[in-house]
Amino acid sequence: MTQAVLQCQNLAFKYASSGFELQVPEFSMQAGETVFLEGDSGSGKSTLLNLMAGVLLPQTGHVSLMGQKLNDLSASRCDALRVDHVGFLFQQFNLLAYLSVLDNVALPCKFSKRRRQQAVQQCGSVVQAAVNLLDALGMSDFARQPVGTLSVGQQQRVAAARALIGKPDLVIADEPTSALDARHQARFVQLLLKQAAQQNTAVILVSHDPRLAEHCQRREQMSRWQAGGYA
Ligand SMILES: Nc1ncnc2c1ncn2[C@@H]1O[C@H](COP(=O)(O)OP(=O)(O)OP(=O)(O)O)[C@@H](O)[C@H]1O
């Protein structure tokens, strides 16, 4: 069997201050798989994503990314593993307003040699990889513009290109469509998943909107994993 991209095993995590607790006996994602993670506000979606990314560490159990247990790594090794293998797509985009669209998309390749190499191998250069992704997402006309001059929906597509560049094994997308209307939400998710599928990148998509689940292969409910502390 091929190695899972992400695996959580016997995971238990509790915030000391609030008592909120998650228990995840088993969760894994294979290469290219798409999972829709749904749950009410306060159900622990961001907490779980932070555990998956190694930003939070569980009290028991472990998260493995590309077969490496995050608990066993130093903070700097964990950061390096994350930037090499995971693209992030957030509600607030986290784009750098003073940089051009192209420079924003290319950014992960500055921090990750692996993603730089993948981009060059795929497209000949990092710039070409960025241009190709922008093209696929309908944003090639804006490549040289500062991102601060773009609409919300356009910035969203730039953030998607940045998450996907250099063929990460996993994209974590946390409420990436919350600023869009329903029609544009579905269109954006389709574009994101199509690009991810082309490069065999797994995607975990978090949203309040259950209609977006139909675009993913699997659907997971946070309620499965809430333990005693959830009110
Ligand atoms: N740093 C923290 N310390 C203590 N408790 C926290 C902390 N962060 C979140 N919580 C609590 O953990 C629970 C889950 O929060 P989390 O942000 O993971 O939920 P969520 O599903 O992402 O919510 P939303 O959809 O509103 O963003 C909430 O009850 C919250 O109050």
SSE arrangement, N to C: EEEHEEHEHHHHEHEE
Distance between the termini: 39 Å
Number of helices: 7
Largest sheet: 5 strands, parallel
How are the strands ordered across the major sheet? 6-7-8-3-9
List the helices and strands and how they pair.
Layout: E1 6-14, E2 21-29, E3 34-38, H1 45-52, E4 60-65, E5 68-69, H2 75-85, E6 86-90, H3 101-111, H4 113-123, H5 126-136, H6 152-164, E7 170-174, H7 182-198, E8 202-206, E9 218-221
Parallel strand pairs: 3-8, 3-9, 6-7, 7-8
Antiparallel strand pairs: 1-2, 1-4, 4-5
Helix pairs in contact: 3-4, 3-5, 3-6, 4-5, 6-7
Adenosine-5'-triphosphate (ATP) binds next to α1.
Task: Describe the structure in brief.
This protein is α/β, with parallel strands linked by helices and 231 residues long. The protein is 35% helix and 22% strand.
Walkthrough of the structure:
Strands 6-7-8-3-9 form a 5-stranded parallel β-sheet, sandwiched between helices. It is 35% helix and 22% strand. The chain has 7 helices and 9 strands. The model has no long low-confidence stretch (mean pLDDT 91). With 231 residues, it is of the alpha/beta class. The protein binds adenosine-5'-triphosphate (ATP). Adenosine-5'-triphosphate binds next to helix 1. GO terms for molecular function: ATP binding; ATP hydrolysis activity; transmembrane transporter activity.
